[in-house]
Design a protein that fits this description.
single chain, alpha/beta, Udp-n-acetylmuramoylalanyl-d-glutamate--2,6- Diaminopimelate Ligase, Chain: A, domain 1, 6-stranded mixed β-sheet, 5-stranded mixed β-sheet, 10 helices, 11 strands
Length: 248
């Protein structure tokens, strides 16, 4: 591992958090001498993402997610392609989700919240963040801001019949109704996530909570760009390369 890369990760998240969450981040460096000039960024580690990096001459890939173990052959192929190409890889999951520059914070900024704080503590990590808009706006206005940011329409909308002002966000895994319950306890009128299931819809309709669901990929991918910029943005000559992903 590049010593400076390890130090920069520590600067971003703190050594205590990294040590306490060893299975929530990782670094794969196959060639210690390979200079880092082109840094790719994406939400997910998949074979297609790796192949795009190789074709584009990327030296190191930064993602929000590693390849999940429950994807079995897809994970194996992703790691095989990484090793075969010598492409370096950095991924940070839960610490990046709760960071003040991470996926949840990014989404709240895009809808107009000037500040936010973590909420929904689970197993030592805050799964989401909450913030407040400067004034009440219709739900469709919040949806339009995110459509512009992510280039996609919401996958699910529940208008609870009230304006939006106090917002909770849980990008990944946010279809868990426990996080929605906690949002209501925090006085939130609106809940936004990147995952959908039937329970989310039933709970939203039963409680009157405004809900917007966008894609998992796009609610999280820009956190990878922000992390890449913090790790390498001060280095002369480094280029950041957007890797194309589906709206999943």
């Amino acid at each position: 591992m590049h010593t400076r890369l390890a130090q920069r990760l520590c600067d971003c998240f703190g050594q205590e958090l990294l040590d306490a969450s060893a299975d929530e981040w990782g670094v794969r460096i196959y060639d210690q001498e390979r200079p880092i000039r082109r840094v790719g960024w994406a939400a997910m580690l998949t074979p297609d993402v790796v192949q795009q990096c190789v074709s584009g001459g990327v030296d190191l890939l930064v993602t929000f997610h590693d390849a999940w173990p429950f994807l079995y052959q897809v994970r194996e192929e992703s790691l095989r392609l990484l090793g075969q190409s010598g492409l370096g890889h950095v991924w940070v999951h839960a610490p990046l989700g709760q960071a003040d520059f991470g996926s949840n914070a990014f989404l709240l900024e895009r809808i107009g919240c000037a500040s936010s704080r973590p909420y929904a503590l689970q197993e030592g990590f805050y799964m989401g963040r909450i913030g407040a808009l400067p004034e009440e706006v219709p739900l469709e206005a919040v949806a339009a801001r995110l459509e512009a940011a992510y280039g996609e329409a919401p996958r699910f909308v529940h208008d609870g019949g009230r304006p939006c002002r106090c917002v909770a966000v849980v990008t990944g895994g946010g279809c868990n109704t426990e996080y929605m319950r906690l949002a209501l306890e925090e006085g939130r009128d609106t809940y936004i996530t990147g995952e959908y299931n039937a329970y989310l819809a039933i709970y939203a309709r039963g409680t009157g909570l405004n809900v917007l669901v966008f894609s998992h990929t796009y609610t999280e991918r820009y956190a990878a760009l922000r992390l890449a910029e913090r790790l390498f943005g001060a280095d002369a000559g480094v280029e950041f390369v957007e890797i194309v992903e589906e709206h999943l």
